[in-house]
Specification:
globular, alpha/beta, 38% helix, D-Maltodextrin-Binding Protein, domain 2, five-stranded mixed sheet, 12 helices
Length: 320
């Protein structure tokens, strides 16, 4: 009887101490975005709205960059924990020796297109012969348009490339160029529609370019075993599932937090992008990454084909 009473008292004491102890502080995680906040980042914000980060013991700070070229380099310098970037750019960064590794995927389908305006005489890729094509990022975009043109029997010498410095829509509308590479099928196409124009789109994956992830999540190579990474990816997976099931509710939460983005173009983009978010952000499709590495090498954009595990891993195994 005395032994049982002592056990009960000890249990009560331990419960009281547990209730009195402060909750474990959430661990901070800094994530650099690739560009200004937009619908492509939906799960990152939804994870916060639904408490998925908190459930994983994280406090995540999402930071848009002042310059879109900076996030990978800041991450390489360990000025952040993670960064959003692009799979095609990852090979260039690795070739430059930056210690960056893909640990997750945000959008696992291409969004990029070669785009022209309907009614301008361009209905197929071969119609670009003798025309001007605008681009924003040298290297990858030039290789993309070169391979796509090759599928139509053309080469870069058949067109004139013009650097339009991310002003893709205005370059098209002003007729500075006849087409652009780098315009997203989920955004610029809708932006043109708002201006009363229909977009003619040519999709890289249908014209000689290997399939790839549009937006990926990078970590510094020294930190790929950080235990916060798989927890972050679990939160992102939960957020994507919730977003798919509750798109309107999530949109309303998003524009409440970002009222400057509450317009028709962003709304349409929000709903068109939902099906493109990675259902399992940690998963790595190794053969697909290796196929794109070969494409980059064949296009002479990188000096050698790197070993897969030197630049990409499955984020669910980020903990040793």
């Amino acid at each position: 009887m005395i032994r049982r009473l002592a056990a009960m008292l000890l249990g009560t004491l331990l419960l009281s101490l547990a209730m009195a102890a402060p909750a474990r502080a959430a661990e901070k995680l800094t994530v650099l975005l690739d560009w200004f906040v937009n619908p492509d980042h939906a799960p990152l914000f939804v994870a916060d709205y639904i408490g998925a980060y908190k459930a994983e013991g994280l406090e995540v700070d999402l930071i848009p960059p002042a310059n879109p070229d900076l996030p990978p380099r800041l991450l390489a310098a360990k000025q952040a924990d993670l960064a959003i970037s692009y799979q095609p750019q990852l090979y260039l960064l690795a070739d430059q020796g930056l210690p960056l590794v893909r640990v997750g995927t945000l959008i696992d389908t291409p969004l990029n297109t070669v785009m022209a305006l309907d009614g301008t005489g361009i209905a197929k890729l071969s119609d670009f012969k003798g025309k001007k094509i605008g681009y924003s990022i040298s290297g990858v975009e030039e290789a993309t348009i070169a391979s796509m043109l090759a599928s139509a029997g053309l080469s870069l010498s058949d067109v004139t490339l013009v650097n339009v410095n991310f002003q893709l829509v205005s370059a098209l509308l002003s007729k500075q160029v006849d087409g652009v590479v780098g315009a997203y099928r989920t955004f610029e196409a809708n932006e043109l529609k708002e201006h009363g124009h229909k977009a003619v789109m040519f999709f890289p994956e249908e014209h000689g370019i290997p399939d790839y992830d549009e937006l990926v999540i990078l970590a510094n190579r020294d930190n790929v075993h950080d235990p916060r990474i798989p927890r972050f990816l679990v939160a992102l997976r939960k957020a994507t599932t919730y977003l798919i099931n509750h798109p309107e509710e999530c949109w309303q939460m998003f524009v409440k937090a970002h009222p400057d983005l509450d317009n028709n173009v962003n709304r349409i983009s929000w709903f068109e992008t939902i099906s493109r978010f990675a259902k399992n952000p940690a998963y790595l499709d190794g053969p697909r990454y290796e196929a794109y590495a070969k494409f980059m090498y064949d296009e002479k954009l990188i000096k050698k084909i790197p070993a897969l595990d030197s630049y990409a891993i499955d984020g669910s195994g980020a903990v040793k």
